[in-house]
Recover the amino acids of this structure.
């Protein structure tokens, strides 16, 4: 369980509009496609890499468990806070394509970008990003990478 001091520390990092500990958010972030339920102590939405770094440092120092989460669409429970702690949610702010390097066939993206968005951006450049076709409309790159989801994780 997080203390009021912990909640204030997270608010200081991400702003009051980017941390939730109310029942509605705890329920919404307590499950994925497995239908198992584990409530987090809070949901924190980092705005950028600096926020992530500060959150990770604070959680490391205070021994707070972190569960990263994108769309929460997985069937393995990887986005579930089984042991409490915080959900580090990337879908709100960290969902952008930073760069597509056509020469090296490399994309630099934030973890909350939806597969289909990357696929469309790659297609505009004559490339193809082949995510799992069953989930391309809602699954995120961060979840795919962390869960080793999809057939192939490279552009062709």
């Amino acid at each position: 369980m997080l203390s009021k001091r912990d909640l204030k520390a997270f608010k200081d990092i991400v702003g009051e509009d980017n941390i939730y500990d109310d029942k509605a958010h705890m329920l919404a972030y307590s499950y994925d496609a497995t239908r198992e339920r584990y409530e987090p102590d809070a949901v924190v939405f980092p705005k950028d890499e600096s926020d992530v770094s500060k959150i990770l440092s604070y959680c490391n120092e205070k021994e707070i468990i972190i569960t990263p989460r994108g769309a929460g669409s997985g069937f393995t429970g990887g986005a579930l806070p089984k042991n409490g702690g915080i959900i580090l949610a990337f879908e709100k702010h960290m969902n952008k394509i930073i760069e597509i390097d056509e020469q090296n066939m490399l994309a630099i993206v934030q973890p909350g970008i939806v597969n289909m968005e990357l696929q469309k951006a790659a297609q505009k450049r004559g490339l193809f990003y082949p995510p799992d076709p069953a989930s391309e409309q809602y699954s995120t790159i961060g979840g795919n990478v962390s869960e080793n989801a999809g057939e192939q994780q490279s552009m062709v």
Q: What stands out?
A: The longest helix spans residues 49-62. Residues 4-89 form a domain with the Uridine Diphospho-n-acetylenolpyruvylglucosamine Reductase; domain 2 fold (CATH 3.30.43.10). The chain has a mean pLDDT of 91.
